[in-house]
Every structure is written in structure tokens, then in C-alpha cells.
């Protein structure tokens, strides 16, 4: 099961990234778990300085933007 984490304080872009990542994971047909991380200490521990950010299995893949659908599918499917 892949753990998809959305890091951000709940802004509109953070919510958009959450929805887009979940849609990509559903389209891939994989087992996944979604988690929102709004705690600034946890966000900085992962090395993220700009939100929204996306991490898969604890590894940050994107920060400071909402990537396109195909980019999301690619990083989610390739994550170890």
C-alpha cells in the first residue's frame, strides 16, 4: 500500500493537490492511503519550505505547486 501525503496548511492549492492525487491513485487502481499533514514541524522535518507538497511513502516528490495529472500518476506509480 502506498502512503500519499499532502503537506500544507489547508489552502485552496493544498485541497486541489489532495483531490488531484487521490484521483490519480484511483485511476491507477492501486492500494493507497491518503494523509493530510498541516503540522508545520512535520512539514519542515520533511525538508519542505513551500506548500503545497506531495510525498509518497515519506519521500517528497513535488513542492510549491500542483503538478499535472500525468505527472502525479507517474510519481505515484513509480514510488517505492
Instruction: Please count the beta strands (DSSP E, at least 2 residues each).
Output: 4
Stated plainly, the CATH topology is called Glutaredoxin
How many helices does DSSP assign? Answer: 3
Mean pLDDT: 96
Helix content: 40-55%
Coarse morphology: globular
Backbone structural class: alpha+beta
Taken together, the total number of domains comes to 1
Quick recap of the structure?
The protein has three helices and four strands; from the N terminus they run βαβαββα. By secondary structure, the protein is α+β, with helices and mostly antiparallel strands.
Tell me what you see in this structure.
This protein is α+β, with helices and mostly antiparallel strands. It has a single domain (2-78), classed as 3-Layer(aba) Sandwich (Glutaredoxin), CATH 3.40.30.10. Helix content is 41%, strand content 26%. It contains 3 helices and 4 strands. It has helices at residues 12-28, 40-45, 69-78, and strands at 2-7, 32-37, 53-56, 59-63. The protein has a 4-stranded mixed sheet. β1 (2-7), α1 (12-28) and β2 form a beta-alpha-beta unit. The longest helix is centred in the N-terminal third of the chain and has 17 residues, at 12-28. The mean pLDDT is 96.
Brief descriptors of the model:
alpha+beta, about 80 residues, single chain, Glutaredoxin, 4-stranded mixed sheet
Amino acid at each position: 500500500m502506498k502512503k500519499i501525503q499532502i503537506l500544507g496548511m489547508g489552502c485552496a492549492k493544498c485541497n486541489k493537490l489532495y483531490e488531484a492525487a487521490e484521483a490519480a491513485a484511483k485511476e491507477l487502481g492501486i492500494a493507497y492511503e491518503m494523509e493530510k499533514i498541516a503540522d508545520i514541524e512535520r512539514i519542515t522535518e520533511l525538508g519542505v519550505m513551500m506548500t503545497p507538497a506531495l510525498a509518497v511513502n515519506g519521500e517528497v516528490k513535488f513542492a510549491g505547486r500542483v503538478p499535472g495529472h500525468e505527472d502525479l500518476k507517474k510519481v505515484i506509480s513509480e514510488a517505492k
